[in-house]
User: Fold this.
Amino acid sequence: MNLVLAFVRKSVARLRAPSSKPKGWLDPEEDSLVPPRDQWIGPDDSISHYFRWIWEYLAYLTIVAELQREEAVLELGCGHGRTSRGLLSYLRSPGSYVGIDVSRDRIADAQNRITRRWPNFGFVWANVRNLQDNPGGADAAEYVFPFNDASFDVIYAASLFSHLLPGETANYLKQCARVLRPGGRVLFLEPNGWNPLFYLQIAVTPGMTWEGDGGVIRMRRGPVFRAMQEAGLTRLSLERFGFFPPFLTNRDWGRRLEAILERVAVWRPLLPFQMFRGERE
Ligand SMILES: C[S@@+](CC[C@H](N)C(=O)[O-])C[C@H]1O[C@@H](n2cnc3c(N)ncnc32)[C@H](O)[C@@H]1O
Assistant:
């Protein structure tokens, strides 16, 4: 029994141990674009995790959302601007990017690192309430995006809606429909609420709580499609991929095993990541 307990304790400690590497080996140009670790969503994530998502987000935007080089992109919950990194060399004038987030520090950091050098990349602080990053803000269910109607071609979000309450999601989706141009696309990358490992991740990861992260349970086809339809979005589709949630896939062995497992049809409904796509007519 003691041996089993020791094994469980050791495994949990290992899951919590920082797997980060210093970023001193990057050349100065690249180094200046990587935000300081205290701004990262997971400060202990490996550097390969940071880069992996830059390029994956670019692939989803260009392949799944069919983002063209001269189009206007809005990102909701942009964090420290990771998505924008892949777009710096893709978008060209009049192409533009705007990211909004409730974290004032991350927005200030991204403005400083990116907007100063690429003025067609903007970052806007959304002063709305969020338990972890902005507890004093206004109600997200009432927030009006600070943009004109029909001003974006593509709206993207990665792991945002799983942090919002249903009323907040409904409002954000309606705002999306308002600020999208006719023919504009939305693409939302979210964890799959049917995958039980996300609940394990919430239980073992320091800083994750049911209150802040439990919205993953609503990230299922039915509720999300209904909310998108009610907001006036059409041509809805859903694609699932990956195998493990980030705390396992961020490890080398996890990534290798995942490449094999995600090809097996029988558990596709449980695959951890999902892309919801929709359009404005
Ligand atoms: C899991 S992080 C994802 C960050 C970024 N999309 C990425 O992948 O690097 C979720 C982000 O959503 C932001 N957020 C949470 N609630 C929000 C809200 N109501 N409006 C805008 N951003 C919000 C958080 O501050 C955080 O940066």
